[in-house]
Amino acid sequence: MANDKVSKISKRYEIPIGPIHPALKEPIRVEAEVKGEKVVKVDVKRGFAHRGIEYMGMKRNAIQTLYLSERICGICSISHPYAFVLASEKALGIEPPPRAQYIRTIIAELERIHSHILWLGVVAHEIGFDPILFWTWKLREKVLDVLEAITGNRINYAMYMIGGVRRDIKESHILALRDMIDYYRKAADQMKDIFLSDPIYKARTKDVAKLSQDLALKLNIVGPTARAAGLRVDIRQDIPYDAYADIDVRAVVPQDIMGEVNGDAYDATLVRIYEIEQSLDIIEYCINNMPEGKLLAIPNYVALLTTIRKTQGEGIGAHEAPRGEVIHYVKYDGTRDGPVVWKVIAPSYNNINCWGPLLLGAEVADIPVVIAFIDPCLCCNDRIAFVKDENGRVLDYFEIHNMSVNKTMKIKRMLGV
What are phi and psi of 219, to 5 degrees? Predict the structure, then answer.
């Protein structure tokens, strides 16, 4: 009898998480093998959301590709076009006007504020604090209202253009920005009290998803996830661009605030809350020092496309998105008005690599916290999918197309259509 009990206790069980699961709103699969309450083996499977965006972008002109880049991710809907225009401007030798550079910086920091607040709510939801989730959603409305006032949209702002921006920030917008800054300075104290002082939140995040500096460097972790591990890395600090070149941006790390680094989900919370305050300072600097002048280097879009059609060049654009560095590579060959090569690397591409080592030895109840810890974006991450037959041979486009047609016809016959 005792031996039977030991045998049952020592058994391992597999918990499949995803590709559709309450803890993961986007398709990815995490297969966690558990013994008791401990995770003893992990396998992360990606590749469920390939949309062929890069391929489509190389079949369009550069302005169409710019709008396509904004649809890589809804939450990062300024990050990808920002990196794309930076890359294109380097490739084409176009310098955006100073006023446009400051406006870009303001919009990027507004997105950082709403993204970090959203992350706080998601983590609260994952540990069962749904009232805090609803509070953060209400808190986030203020910055979304300001974005809507300036750009016309609460998401997918269509604000950036190769060589500048499409819309100006007016005096009425500056008043709304100042009101928003005051609002979030007060709210930051509430966030610190709710997230950083609450004993239950501490218990659920302290020593959970604990990432060391050595592992973060080895896995090339980026953004707030890397900074939570104590790494002082930030594109705005390391390779400043646009108005960031005029601002002394210093990466937010736990040791500057708490005097120590644990690299856990609690430190990740700390970093994001203090980055919200940093974003407010950056926005305030930009509106106080906004240069006068035009918004576009080449205001006529036909002239812009003509310039692109006559120019050869390649460029890399790097932007510090809310989740970490977004990098776009483009190449123009001087024969058409769009990129002949377009490659996108998003922060989740790097950061998902830490799930495996962080989940090993974790409690089952902490799996959602570890997953949410990096603020994953799967639609930013997936780029290509290989389909193999039963012999392991990779199928080509025509074979996959024929399989799809045959399956559709089979379903129609079954339904009598």
Answer: -90, 0
Q: How far apart are CA 42 and CA 50, in angstroms?
A: 23
What's the maximum distance between 2 C-alpha atoms anywhere in the chain? 84
pTM over 0.85: yes
To which residue do tokens 């400051």 refer?
102
Nearest to 247, CA basis, from 272, 276, 278: 278
Q: Write the burial class of residue 181 (CB in 10 Å: 0-12 exposed, 13-18 middle, 19+ buried).
A: middle
Main-chain phi, psi angles of 258, to 5 degrees: -105, -10
Q: Where are the beta strands (DSSP E) in 25-183?
A: 29-35, 38-45, 160-161, 164-165
For tokens 């100073």, what's the residue? 98
Angle at 109 between CA 103 and CA 114, to 5 degrees: 130
User: 117: closest CA among 75, 69, 175?
Assistant: 75
Taking alpha carbons only, the member of 369, 373, 367 closest to residue 347 is 373
φ, ψ for residue 82 (rounded to 5)? -60, -50
Closest Cα to residue 286, out of 153, 110, 164?
Answer: 110
222-256 residue pLDDT tens = 999 999 999 999 999 999 999 999 999 999 999 99
Give the 3-state secondary structure of residue 333. strand
Among the ranges given (19-23, 231-235, 338-342), the one the predictor scored with the smallest mean pLDDT: 19-23
Beta bridge partners of 321: 324
